[in-house]
Amino acid sequence: MYLFISFQSLTSAGAGGTGKIAYEVARDLFDKKQPVKLIVSAKGKFTTTFPSAPVSVWSRYYLFLLNKLIAPWLKPYQKRHLEEKIFDFFCSFHIQRDQKLVFTTTPFIPRTLKKAKQLGIPVVFFPGTPEENHIAELVTREANHWNVKAQDVYTYQPRLAVYNKGMSLVDDVICHSSVIESTYKKNWPGKKFISCAGLLKPVSINHEEATPSASFTVLYAAHTVWLKGLQYLLKAWSEVSVDGELLVVGSIDPTVQRVIDREFSSLKNVSFTGAVSGIDAYVKRSTVLICPSLIDGGPVTVMEAMRYAVPSILTSMCGIKDFIREGETGWIIEAGNSKELAARIKWCYENPLATREVGRAAQTMLNQYDFKDFIENIASETLALRNL
User: Fold this and answer.
1) 382 in the same domain as 242
2) Same-domain check for residues 94 and 234
3) Does residue 74 share a domain with residue 182?
4) Which of 250, 247, 236 has its CA nearest to residue 310?
5) Which residue among 77, 94, 236, 317 has the highest number of C-beta atoms inside a 10 angstrom radius?
6) Residue 322 lies inside a defined structural domain of this protein
7) Contact 96/141 with Cβ under 8 angstroms?
8) 52-54 and 36-40 beta bridge pairing
9) Whether residues 90 and 189 fall in one domain
10) How far apart are CA 36 and CA 248, in angstroms?
11) pLDDT of residue 234
């Protein structure tokens, strides 16, 4: 049997994040008559065509208690760490001697992976984000650069220690982007790496175009942490002179917010929405989306913009760059380079028709993308491991 493990949950609508990959690959193998089982944090009313289960019959109850009674006393990163440790404890009981392979989308389960290794079961890891040590170093460096203290889910040392222990037990790493693969190869050179380029989010065909507002509108949308690079977009905005608006959508980490308040409070024509439930309405009124991430496995917002023929400016450290043709379906700039970003914003402002054409080409590219081929590629590579 192939055991698939996802820290995400199955909700009434299905799986999300890398949990979607685990679900789809398991389903593909099941359709090929392979024995599979999917383990998730919790399971709603969603029904799978193959065996799947919550990590524990008690998962709903302990998650409820954790969120209602314990979480208020913990920092968000401490809560995440505790959730992962509980998940690992229960997940280890699902490892059985007759299993052919463990396919996991999280390495934060050293207890589970150690048991698999003791039984001689190979472990395959599919990461949705760049390597954790790389991220921790980047976050620390960025916080130091802006003269603030940062303690978050990436730099919390007890959690990072668990990650490193889990990664030491992984045999193979399947990477869906060159950015992710490069960070893992740097920190784990002894692993076997398999490239399966693809977009994590399945996309539906869409021929609707955004109807930009009369003014030039630049959109940034994310839950902002240091990695998202908003600080460099704001710096670029201060360096460029255009008649338009910068729309910042999404919640902002408190430490990043302090820097924004200190360094960029005097910026003109910048609107902050705070947390929102969806970004479609903002995309539809935008001229161009900017993803200034210092490193990012995706990001999904670029695909959301593509759906409505809104072009994107993104950095060379965004995983989705592998699907961008420079100047044809988007623009790629150096991460953290505010001057290069300012110049590209000005170009888009001065060339509205050419900017719209890039957006239309991006939409066409996305509509032609085959998510099913991506899943089948991962499934085939998984079957080929260890000549199974």
Assistant:
1) no
2) no
3) yes
4) 247
5) 236
6) yes
7) no
8) parallel
9) yes
10) 43
11) 97
* Tokens of residue 237, six digits: 């905005």
Q: Token match 């201060």: residue?
A: 238
Helix, strand, coil abundance in the chain, percent, nearest 5: 45, 15, 35
Please give the pLDDT value at position 388.
Answer: 52
Burial of 53: CB neighbours in 10 Å, binned 0-12, 13-18, 19+: middle
Q: Which residues pair with 153 in a beta bridge?
A: none
Same domain, 246 and 284: yes
Buried b / exposed e across 355-367, counting CB within 10 Å, b at 16+? bbebbbbbbebbe
Backbone angles phi, psi at 25, to 5 degrees: -70, -40
210 in a structural domain: no
For residues 149 and 11, membership in a common domain is answered with yes
Look up the domain containing 272 and give its range: 216-368
Q: How far is residue 13's CA from residue 386's CA, in Å, rounded to a whole number?
A: 34
H-helix segments, 92-244: 110-118, 132-145, 157-167, 178-187, 230-239
Whether residue 111 lies inside any domain: the answer is yes
Strands (E), the chain: 2-5, 36-40, 52-54, 101-104, 123-125, 172-175, 192-195, 216-221, 244-249, 270-272, 288-291, 312-315, 331-333
Within a domain: residue 209?
Answer: no
Based on the fold, state whether residues 18 and 76 are members of the same structural domain. yes
Based on the fold, state whether residues 141 and 32 are members of the same structural domain.
yes
Q: How many domains does the structure of the chain reveal? A: 2
pTM over 0.85: yes
CATH of the domain at 152: 3.40.50.2000
Determine contact, residues 39/19, Cβ cutoff 8 Å: no
**What string of pLDDT tens digits covers the 388 residues of the chain?**
999 999 988 775 655 678 899 999 999 999 999 999 999 998 877 788 999 999 998 887 788 887 888 878 888 888 899 999 999 999 999 999 999 999 999 999 999 999 999 999 999 999 999 999 999 999 999 999 999 887 788 999 999 999 999 999 999 999 999 999 999 999 999 999 999 999 988 777 888 888 877 789 999 999 999 999 999 999 999 999 899 999 999 999 999 999 999 999 999 999 999 999 989 999 999 999 999 999 999 889 999 999 999 999 999 999 999 999 999 999 999 999 999 999 999 999 999 999 999 999 999 999 999 999 999 999 999 999 865 5
Q: Please give the structure tokens belonging to residue 222.
A: 């994310």
Task: Tell me how far CA of residue 36 lies from CA of 42, 101, 378, in angstroms.
Answer: 18, 10, 15
